[in-house]
Every structure is written in structure tokens, then in C-alpha cells.
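Incident log entry.

Two folding requests arrived from the same account within the same minute. Monitoring flagged them as a possible duplicate submission, but the sequences differ. Recording both here for audit purposes.

Request one:
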Amino acid sequence: MLVRRIARPLLAASFVYGGISTLRNPQSRVPGARKIVGQIADQADKQLPIEVPKDVEQWVKVDAGIKVGAGALFALGVFPRLSALALAGSIVPTTLAGHRFWEDSDDEKKFSNQAHFLKNAGLLGGLLIAAVDTEGKPSASWRVRRASDKAISKAEAKFEKAQKKAEKAQKKASRGKTQKKIVKQARKAKKSAGL
């Protein structure tokens, strides 16, 4: 659809541009990211069996790389749902690190950070919509439900067919036994009559 082909590059542009800018000069982002990286690394160390690197500049570069890579994929429409999800996961720590307006005492700086925070929240909303966009195709859960319903219907039909065959076979068998009894009785009667 034409709207997706226009909207995806527009949505991805700020991520790609920001990611390239950060890769060129990661030191400018390190002071803001230090607090968030420390918190994430501490929580990860408690939850994971391995030690997480605490080099803030490395984390900033990784985040920027995700933004450039996922942004380019999203803009091109390659794995759009997965790349939108990666960008959504990337924007949350970036926003929390760079736009902590609740900590600002200067009203002008607070207003600027608040505006950027809300802008990023809007971008996050757009990315979440893009992450669940099936482009008019049925979702995976719908396809699974439909396939299971079809399988159940087929199994029920086969069971009913088998049941009918079994009933027919049972009737046939019982008729066969009755005929055999009549033939035996006739033979006995002939023997006893001396025929």
C-alpha cells in the first residue's frame, strides 16, 4: 500500500539520522546514558548468569547501531514488524536517558526535554502500531485458530464416517450370523429327515 511506503521511511528517518549522528560522536550521549546503563546492567547482572558489560560508550554505540540497522530495514519494508519492534525497544532507554524532564530545574530546559519526551512517546506509539500491522493479512493467531478449527472439523467428519462404517459392518455381521444359523438348522433338519 502506498501509505506504508511513504510512512515507513518518514518514521524511520529520525532513527537512522540520530543513529548515524551518535555513531560519529558517541561521547556526546555518554553522560545522559550513564545512569540508565548502570541501572540496566545492575538488573541484568541479578537476572542473568553472565556479567553484562558496563562500558557506557559501548552501549551507546550498540543502541545507535540498532537504530541505523532497524531503521533502514523498516524504511525499506524488510521485516517491518520485527524492525519496528526493535526500534520501539531502542527508543525507551534512549528517551529515559536523554529527556529526564522531571529532573530539570530550569523551566526552558524542562519544557524542551518534556517536548522531546512526548515526541518520542508519539514515535513509540507509531512503532507499536507498525509492529502489529499485518498489512491486511490475517494475524498469526487468527491463522492458528482457523487451522485448528479446520483440523477439528476434519477429525470429526472422519470419526463420523468411521462410526457409520462400523455400524454397517456390525449389521452385516449380525445378518451373516443369522443366515448361517438358518443354513445350519436346515442341514440338521435334512440330516434328521434322512435327506
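Request two (distinct sequence, not a duplicate):
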Amino acid sequence: MTCCDRRSHHYSDYYPPLINPDSTVNRNPSVAIALIVLLFCVFLTALSRGMGETFGVFLLPLSNQFAWERASVTSIYSVYMVCLGCGSLLSGMVFDRFGARFNYCAGVALLTCAYGMAGSYDSLWQFYLSIGIFGGIGAAMIGIVPTQSLVSRWFDKRLATALSIGYAGQGLGTLMMVPLAQIAIDRLQWSGAYKLAGWMFAIVLLVVIVLPWKKIEQGAHNNPRNAPGGKSTGGLSLSEALKTRAFWGFFFIFTTTAIGIFGISLQSVAYLIERGYSEVEAALAFGIVGSLSFAGMALTGLAADRWPRHLVASCSYVLSFIGIGALALLQLYPGWLFLGIFVITFGLSAGARGPIITTLMAETFAGKGLASIYGASNLGQGFGAAFGALGAGLLYDLTGGYNIGFILCSLFTFIGASLFWLVPEIRHAGK
């Protein structure tokens, strides 16, 4: 066997590289398939979660249209996040039992109904049903839970990098969908914008139905997380994982961090408009945050493959604190300086912990119950985001301002950062 043969064997049999200078893609079809699967997961995650995050630009139009209080409107997003969390558990259990095709077809169908119907509604409970329940469960069915399971079958030693790219689809979706949603609202009103989104997901559904799912689920040859037929074996079940300290550490990191981050992000567009920025400027700033979160997640994954993951996570939390502080200081120092600091620091750090947790869980709980275990841990993110969004809205209604919300969001974010150091199984994982 020549040196070239050995190198090809190393890359193709153990992990498909994200960047291969020797053009292995041309010689090994599994590398190309792995990259296509990764891009597919990024695209679906971007569409689903990106559309969910557009609720920030629908917030004021809905409030003005129906004269609803801020807490009432944000409660729709809270229902969405609760269902996203619960749907993550459902998504993992369904994936483990029925496979990826069922997940993606059912999820896109739910999103088609969710946004297609929302444009015709005028009652709060109807928005709870469509945007909240259907939108949340639909996004969970095609989001990071099946992404983690599929990507971990195709990538091994560069798993953190691959998963960070998959996870970054959420940030990419915010970048794409939020400005587009604002433009659609300006031209078609909020109802027309939702109907347009429904047609978009209907087209995606037709494509998803005809994809070669048997090949997609197969995974890379000799990947230790893969098994013949795409069915993983070994490892802990969900019930066994629930008895471990590591699982609950991940769960509460998701919960507390989500309270802090989503309590800020959902209100940011309305806050910037109240500070004197135009609706387009506020939406653009939120979109840039999304684009930077895409870069931040990818960079976090690369860093997590090189340095201790609890240190990488801690650096991202520092950026979050700086971003929250800069946003608060806009009340005293309006202008572009502190807005720029907020956009850069909050954007680079928002969601940056996700790829680290995803990678650690893929390594810690690899096996038959991975999708279910990861889905269960995402319940924490769903409940935390719902609590943060609703709590921020209630605090605004009670106090007429955002300062108490800024303080509490900073506190919960600090608790999330602390857990990376306080739980030994997390601090020393991956070493």
C-alpha cells in the first residue's frame, strides 16, 4: 500500500474531511455525500428556525393590528419555544424509531400548515395553534436533533466542526429570513408575509418527499457511531441517561442560557425601534446578529476541536455579557457605537454554546438513544426560551422598560456559564 493509499484510507474510512486538499471528493463518493447531507441539514435548519425567529419583526405589527399587550404577543413565541422543546424530545424518539424520512416529511408538512394558516387568523388562540404548536413541533422535527444524528453518522474526528456548521444553520436562517420577512411585511402586510412562507414550505415538502433517504441515513463506512442499515446500537437509552449527572448538567445549561439569550433577542427589534431606529434598521441589525451567530457557531466548533471546551464556552459567555451591556447603554448613549458592539458581540456568542453541547453529547451518549437523549435535553432550551421571552414581555408591561430584564437575563446567562465549570463530567469531557 502506498503512502497515498494510506492517506486516502485514513480520510475515507474514518471521517470524511470538510476540506480535502488532495481532491479525495473525486475518488471517494462518500465524502461528497457527507458534505451534501451536511448542507441539507444546514438548509432545513436555517429555513425552519429562521422562520421562527422572524417573530421578532412580526411582534409590533401584530400588537398594532389587534391592540394586544406586549406580554400577550410574546406569549405566542413562548408557546412556540415550549413546543420546540417538547417537539425536540418527540423528534428524537420518532427519529430513533422511524428514521429521518418520517421526521423531515412530517416536520415540513407541519410548517406548511403553520405559516400558511397564520395569515388568516385574528385570535390569540389561533396563533398559539399555528405559530406556537405547529410551528414549534415542525421546527423541532427538522432541526438540530435529526441534524445531530445524521451528521454524527457521516463525520467522526472532525465532528465538532461539522456539528457547529449544522448548528449554525439557525444563525444563517436568522440572517436570511428576518430581513426577508420585514420586506414581505412592508409589501404584503403581516398576513401576506405568513401566507408566502406557507407556500415556500409547501415547495420544500415536495422536494423532501422524493429524496434518497436510504442513502442519506446510511452514514459513512466504519464510522464508530454508525451501524449497518443506519440503525445505531449500544450506548445508553434515554431512561438510563436521565440518571446521569451529565445529562442534567446539559439540560440546565440549555435552560439558563436560553432564558438569558432569548429574553434579549426577542425584544431587541422592538427595543431598537423605541430607541429611535427605523423598522428596517432594527430588522437589519437583528439580521446581522443572525449572520454573525452563524460565524460564531462555526468558529466555536473549530475552537472546540483544538482547546478545552469549557474554556471556549466561557469566552463566548463573556461576549454575551458585553453585548447585553452595550444594548442597555443605548439608553444613555444612543448612536451606532454601542449598537455595533451589541451586534458584534451578541451575534458572535448567541447560540455558540450549542455546538459545544451537541458535540459533547454526541461523544458522551453515542448509540441507540442519542437522538432521544439530545431531544430530551432540548426541553431545557425550549422551556428556558419560553420563560425568557414571556418574562421579558411581562417585565416590560409591568415596568415600562427593559432594565430589570437586562439584569435578570445577565444573571441566568452567568449561571449557564458556571455549569460548564461546576459539573465535572462536562468540564472534563472530551479530554
